[in-house]
Specification:
Elements: H1 25-28, H2 35-40, E1 44-49, E2 58-62, E3 65-71, E4 77-81, E5 95-96, E6 101-102, E7 109-110, E8 116-118, H3 128-134, E9 139-140, E10 142-145, E11 148-152, E12 173-182, H4 186-191, H5 198-206, E13 220-226, E14 229-238, E15 241-250, E16 254-257, E17 276-284, E18 287-297, H6 310-316, H7 324-329, H8 333-338, H9 356-373, E19 394-399, H10 407-424, H11 430-449
Antiparallel strand pairs: 1-11, 2-3, 3-4, 4-9, 5-6, 6-7, 7-8, 10-11, 12-18, 13-14, 14-15, 15-16, 15-19, 16-17, 17-18
Bound molecules: FE2/S2 (inorganic) cluster and fe (ii) ion.
Fe (ii) ion binds at residues 192, 198, 202-203, 316, 333.
């Protein structure tokens, strides 16, 4: 009997269909010497919150590597291989000194770049220079930025400029660093940013109104690929208003979206910006951490949402640590993406038009990984020479009353107009860009009202 035929007992297919399939191996593997692992190692990646670094070293796992992060007593950060090059003791038990870190076992002292500063207790006959040169500790460059510690784990001759994004430098806003840990592969956590329709279901209709009430409204979805950015825009009708919400992925793993609570389409917003900016970092292939900032201010979520729970609620709609019974009744992103399994079977997915953003960005990632295998280095957002780097994630709500024609087509047209206004201004410095965009948005309202 073919699958299309229905027998006397109905068209039940549980026996015929497999439960599990294959993953997208090229993208889910991020360890050393894997194509995607090498690709991700070409970018600065956050590895910890600054607040997590104390006077003792901290064990961290990043891209499958076990590393030790420390701050020496002169305030410099180091990120080194876990095992000491002498006889393999773990540097997590080392001592942070004025200059560098001292291994607990035989007292070798290493600088933040892994060079050997002291090998105590040896005879004068030992060729100290030779031993020091041969027994360096593996180390990576580190820098701190606004409460997150970043490291570069790639080849040192390829270290890129550190990217500063426009939304992180705006006046009058507070950035609250946080981390959210997911027990699954990075790709399934990252996918959600280019899946704007899930907000209407997971975060509204299916669970409860985890963000603003207006998120449950279905809109028209637009997807754009622009340089290093992928944009998923949801255009919703709310009475006389049209609400444009832009989710953003900047390759390879930086994401932004609009306000979580204060945008609902009912009040005008002229060029609101991201309320959460995050990097989705593989710790290994089965564990991922979003290192992020919750952003509070006039152009994101207002300061009253800056509570101890605020960052987790912005991250995934619910607190991360809660009873199973509550997780079942009110699932958030963690339930959705961890429930796929530690590494999802992408080869068994059935993708539809609302998944277009995911299809596009995964395709590009595959291409970049393959190119790097052939020796073609990826382009960085800083290469354009515009600082800070312009981004698009955020909310805008305009008064654009319904007119009597095909509303879905009209919302798509308005969405394209809205995105083009941002694209036209992307080479301008922040102040000038805001002026240009707001002026164009008001002109669009006037044009429609006429
Ligand atoms: S094992 Fe580290 S100094 Fe000996
Ligand atoms: Fe979500």
């Amino acid at each position: 009997m073919s699958l299309s035929e229905t027998g006397p007992h109905g068209d039940y297919r549980g026996y015929r269909q497999p439960h599990r399939g294959a993953s997208d191996e090229l993208l889910v593997r991020t360890g050393r010497a894997t194509p995607c692992g090498e690709y991700l190692r070409r970018y600065w990646q956050p590895v910890a919150l600054t607040s997590e670094v104390e006077d003792v070293p901290r064990l961290v796992r990043v891209l499958g590597e076990d590393l030790v992060l420390f701050r020496d007593r002169s305030g410099r950060y180091g990120l080194v291989h876990r095992q000491c090059p002498h006889r393999r003791a773990s540097m997590e038990f080392g001592v942070c000194e004025e200059r560098g870190i001292r291994c607990c076992y035989h007292g070798w002292l290493f600088d933040v770049d892994g060079s050997v500063l002291e090998i105590p207790g040896q005879p004068a006959t030992m060729d100290a220079a030779l031993v020091r040169e041969k027994s360096r500790l593996g180390a990576y460059p580190v820098r701190e930025y606004r409460g997150l510690i970043f490291a570069y784990l790639g080849p040192i001759e390829q270290v890129p400029d550190f990217p500063i994004y426009d939304t992180l430098e705006l006046d009058g806003q507070e950035l609250v660093p946080y981390r959210a840990d997911y027990a699954c592969n990075w790709l399934q956590v990252l996918d959600a940013i280019l899946d704007p329709i899930h907000t209407s279901f997971l975060h509204s209709r299916v669970s409860r109104a985890q963000f603003s009430e207006g998120m449950g409204e279905l809109g028209e979805l637009l997807f754009h690929e622009r340089g290093q950015s992928f944009l998923g825009t949801n255009v919703r009708r709310v009475g006389d208003n049209v609400w444009f919400r832009v989710n953003e992925l900047v390759l390879p793993n930086y994401t932004q979206a609009g306000a979580a609570f204060s945008a609902d389409g009912t009040r005008p917003i002229y060029y609101g910006r991201t309320a959460f900016s995050r990097w989705v970092v593989p710790l290994d292939d089965e564990n991922t951490t979003a290192f992020a900032w919750a952003i509070f201010g006039e152009r994101a979520d207002p300061p009253e949402y800056n509570t101890p729970e605020g960052p987790e609620l912005i991250e995934q709609g619910e607190l991360m640590d809660r009873p199973y019974s509550e997780r079942q009744r009110f699932p958030g992103d963690a339930e959705a993406v961890e429930g796929m399994g530690r590494i999802a079977d992408q080869k068994m997915e059935h993708l539809v038009p609302s998944d277009s953003g995911i299809i596009q960005y995964r395709k590009r990632l595959r291409k970049l990984c393959r190119q790097l295998e052939q020796g073609i280095e990826p382009t960085h957002v800083t290469a354009a020479g515009i600082a800070p780097v312009p981004t698009c994630g955020g909310d805008t709500v305009l008064c654009l009353p319904r007119i009597d024609d095909d509303e879905r087509t009209r919302l798509r047209e308005l969405g394209e107009r809205f995105m083009q206004i941002q694209f036209d201004a992307e080479d301008l410095a922040e102040d000038e860009r805001v002026r240009h965009v707001v002026r164009a948005l008001r002109a669009l309202e006037t044009e429609v009202a006429a």
